[in-house]
Amino acid sequence: MHKSKITGLGFEVPEKVVLNADLEKIMDTSDEWIQSRSGIKERRWASEDIATSDLALGASKKAMEMAGVSPEDIDLVIVGTLSSDYFFPGVSAQLQDKLNLRNVAAFDIKAACSAFVYCLSVGDQFIRSGMAETALIVGAVTQTKLIDKTTRGRDIAVLFGDGAGAAIIQTSNDDSGILSTHLHCEGKDMRNLWMEGPGSAPGVWINNKQAIADGRLSPFMNGREVFRNAVTRFPEVIQEAMDENGLTMDDIKLIIPHQANNRISQAVAKRMGIDMDRIYSNIHKYGNTTAASIPIALTEAFQEGKIKKGDHIILAAFGAGYTWASAAIRW
C-alpha cells in the first residue's frame, strides 16, 4: 500500500468584496449583528460572468505550479461542489478540458461543506491502491448566485461567500502524508440545511411558481440545529482522527476546520480544551465558502508559515447532509 501527500496548494477568490456594510443596504441586518454571530467581516461574491469552473481553474493552476506538475502528470480529477456550472456534467469534466489533461478519470462529489475532505479521502484511496500517482483535488463554489439576497434570506446570505481551493496529492516516499480519513453521514436531519429545489422531487422543479414564491429554490438553514450538531460532530471526528493514529492534542500543531462560523470554532476549542490559536480561522475575510473553505484555509496557513515539515495537522468539516469528516496529516 502506498501513501499520498499534498505537494501543491492554491486558491482563487472573486475580485468583488462584499462588506457587512454593503449587506446593510439590501437587507435588514448590521455589521455588529453579523460579526457577533459569525465573525465574518467580508466575503467574496462571484459576478455574473464568473462560474465555478473559472475559480476551480485558477486554484488548480496555482496548485499545479507549486507541485511542479504538468497536465500530463495528472491522472485523476475530483471536484467537490454544490454549485456546478451546469445541471450536468460536473465541474471536473470542464477542468479536464480547460487544463488540457489526458482522458483521465474525472468526477464530482456532492457532500456540501464536507466535500473537500471527502474528495481528499477518495483521491488518497486511489493512490494507496496504485490506481493513481498524481491527483488534482478541488473544492469550488459560486453558491452566492443561489441565495436569496433579501431580508427573508439573510440568515444564509450574510454567511456565505464564493471561492475555490485545490490540492495536488502524489505518492509519498517518506513518512509524511495523509495518515487517515474519516467520513460520516446522517441524512435524517437533512432538512435543517438544504436547498430543496430545483430537483426531481415532486413540486420543486424549476417551473414550479409556488416553490419559487415559497423560497424553496434557495438554500435554507435551521441555524440553531446546525450549530448544536456541529459542536458535537467536530470534536468527535477530530478525536477519531487522533485515536486512529495514536495522537493526542499535544501532538497536533494545527486544526484546520471548515470555516462555518467562528462561534462554532470557539465552542469546539472549549470542548477540546485548547486555545483558539490552535484552530486556524480566516472566516472574517471570506465567509463560509463550503467545499472551498478548507483548501483555502490550508493554503493560507501554509503560506503564513503556520505549518512546517513534520507537523501533524487535522482537517475537519461538518455540513449539509448532515455530513462530517476529518483527515489526519503529517506534513
Q: Can you describe what's shown?
A:
There is one protein chain. This protein is α/β, with parallel strands linked by helices and 331 residues long. The protein is 33% helix and 23% strand. The protein contains eleven helices and 13 strands. The strands form four sheets. Strands 1-7-6-4-5 form a five-stranded mixed β-sheet, with helices on both faces. Strands 8-13-12-11 form a four-stranded mixed β-sheet, sandwiched between helices. The chain has a two-stranded antiparallel sheet with strand order 2-3. Helix 3 (52-67) crosses helix 4 and helix 8 packs across helix 9. The model has no long low-confidence stretch (mean pLDDT 96).
> Can you list the strand order of the major beta sheet?
1-7-6-4-5
Please, what is the average pLDDT?
A: 96
Rg, rounded, reads 19 Å
Structural class call reads alpha/beta
* Beta content: 15-25%
Number of helices: 11
What pattern of helices and strands is seen along the backbone? EEHHEHEHEHEHEEEHEHEHHHEE
